[in-house]
Structure formats: structure tokens, C-alpha cells
Amino acid sequence: MSWLGLLSQLMAIVVALVLAPLMSGWVNQWRARLQNKSAPGLLQPYRLLRKLFNKESVLAEHASPLFRAAPYIVFGCMLLASAIIPTLSTDLPLSPAADAIALVGLFALARVFISLAAMDVGTAFGSLGARREMLVGFLAEPALLMVLFCASMVSRSTSLTTIVDTLAHREFAIYPSFLLTGVAFTMVSLAENARVPVDNPETHLELTMIHEAMILEYSGRHLALLEWAASLKLFAYSCVGLALFFPWGVAQAQSPLALLLALPALMIKLAVGGMVMACIETASAKMRIFRVPEFLGTAFLMAVIGLLVNILLGVS
Known about the structure:
By secondary structure, the protein is mainly α. Helices cover 70% and strands 0% of the residues. It has helices at residues 3-34, 44-53, 65-84, 100-120, 124-155, 160-168, 176-192, 211-214, 220-245, 256-283, 292-313.
């Protein structure tokens, strides 16, 4: 294990912690601008986290240890997921121990704990949000796996670092399957991050809430960790999309100069991706919860078709 690899891993963790709230603020700002609203400050998520960390946590009378531990577990899962994604470099010490399947498993583990915690105190809103969250996850995870498997056929490996290294440092080629999987991944990303058209992060109407319904009983540092974890999840999904479909700019192993240039390249790609997400949300309408299975079923179908296209074309 080289010192440069340790530096790359440490930088990946620090960048995820610092840029995740900034990414959320950037998307919210552009969404407000496109809707002709007064845009919040770019640093508003940082101010929110500071305010919540300085407040006292109020717990429900019958809350179990699971309710107290869930924010820390969810935050840890999202931070670990961000750490194993090659955002800056492919020389990551954690990469041999985690691949695309493990990444989906981390997202699923966080979903299970936040859903159990939402049902723990026995409120109607929490149980409603938990059921809807599990429905979305049940449909989104297979689609995400198919997207990752389609990309893994190019490198013949499910390791994210191997996939990125293969796609970024081989001769330029156009893969028809990536067009289908790119659309599928965008649909899954919107659903998993509680964005329009599946969910609306700004609403507090009980008939439409999914993510917000599960965290209504949290306050103080627990709520701060969950809000930070939500930003980390958006950051992780954005980085996975960039790693699969726009891998250029990620530093190669043992390349200090490329590692230095990888950070501005990542920030530019995240900025463009945030603007595109805001445009998609502005142009879309919130769909009924009963239409979500059709939405995610379409994403799964497109990902499977992309996988079949790879097989028919003999991509390797």
C-alpha cells in the first residue's frame, strides 16, 4: 500500500464530506432559479448542519436503541459508499474489498435501518414513509445492479476502479448500450435521492412524503447526520454516474500530477450534473405513488436491454 494510495483515499473521504452539502446547495439553487424563485445561498446546507449540531436532540419516549443508532449507521454507510467510488483516483486501498455489488449493498443497508427507525416510534407518518421507501428500493436496486453489470461487461470486472480505469484509459469507443443504461441510471438516481418526479424534497404534505416522513421524529445532531447522509447519497450517486459515463479526469494509480488535476475536473463535472438534475426536476411533475413502479420498471427494462445489447455486440 503506497503513501499515494493512502493520500488518495483520505482525499476521497474529505472531498465527499466537504462537497456533498455544496452539491445539494448547488442543485437547490439552480432549481429555484429555473422556477423564478428567490434562490437560497450556496452555503445554506452548511448553515443548516451547524444549526442542527448545536441543538439538543429530543427523542420519543418509547424510542429504542435502534432509533438512536440509525443516524450513525446511515451516515457511516453513505460515507463508506462515497469512499469506495473512484472520484479522484483509481488507486484506493478500499477498492479491492468493495465492488459494485457491495456498493448497492451499502445503499440497501442504510435504507433498511432508516426504515426500521422510522417505524420504531410507531407514528403514522414514519410507517407510511418507511413502506414507500422500501417499495422504491425494491424496484430501484435491481435496475441499478443491471446498470453496473452492463458497465462491468466492458472491463470483465465488477470492481468500480477497474471499470473506471478500463473506460477512461482505452481507445475512445461509442457503446450503444450506455445510452440506454445512462437514461436508466438517471431515473434510478432521481428515485433514490427523493427527487422529482418520484418525491419532492421541499414538500411536507403527508400524502406525498417519502424521505421527509421517515425523519420527522429526529432533531438535533441526529437530524444533522441524516441530512448530511442524504447529501452524501446524492454525491455518491452523482460520482457513480460520472465514473461510469464520464470517467475522464480520474487520476491513474501512482500519478501525483493527475491527482492534483482530478479535483477541479470533478467539481466541473458535478456542477454540470447538478444543473442537468435541476433542469430535469423543473421540467417534470410529481407523479402519483402508484405510478412509481411503472417509472422504475421502465428503468429496469432499459438497463436489461442495454445489457442484452452488450451481449449481442460481443462487447468486452
